[in-house]
Specification:
Layout: H1 8-22, E1 32-34, E2 37-43, E3 46-47, E4 51-54, E5 58-64, E6 70-74, E7 83-85, E8 91-96, E9 100-105, E10 115-120
Parallel strand pairs: 2-5, 4-10
Antiparallel strand pairs: 1-2, 2-3, 5-8, 6-7, 6-9, 9-10
Length: 121
């Protein structure tokens, strides 16, 4: 059997790809701005925009539109704690009060380029 020769990390990636292919694809492809909250959509193995810019005091909402497990993990800052999104439709928000650049990534899919940046002005 071929399955005996696939390493566990590769097997997990293959299962994630198959599940993603069967999941509902959601739009929009860009973040949406509704008042003081900008939404970043988690779709397939990417965030909907690599960089978003918001004003100080505004919030970012992440929404998982897939059935895949994802994280939003801070990269070099403590503006928010790592969050996990394992269910389709799951959301969470973080308010940003300090100007700066805030990098983040998805822990299991970082090697696939699943990264983002928030610029707070």
């Amino acid at each position: 059997m071929i399955a005996r020769h696939i390493s566990p990390p590769i097997a997990c990636l293959l299962v994630s790809l198959v599940v993603s292919a069967c999941s509902d694809r959601a739009e929009p492809t860009e973040p949406t701005d509704s008042g003081n909250v900008t939404e970043v959509v988690i779709r397939d193995f990417a965030f909907s925009a690599p960089t978003i810019t918001i004003d100080r005091g505004e919030s970012v909402r992440w929404r998982n539109t897939t059935r895949n497990f994802h994280t939003v993990t801070p990269n070099g800052h403590q503006a928010f704690a790592e969050r996990q999104t394992g269910a389709q439709g799951q959301t969470f928000e973080t308010r940003f009060d300090t100007p700066g650049r805030y990098l983040y990534y998805c822990e299991p899919h970082r090697s696939l380029g699943m990264t983002g940046e928030i610029v707070v002005r």
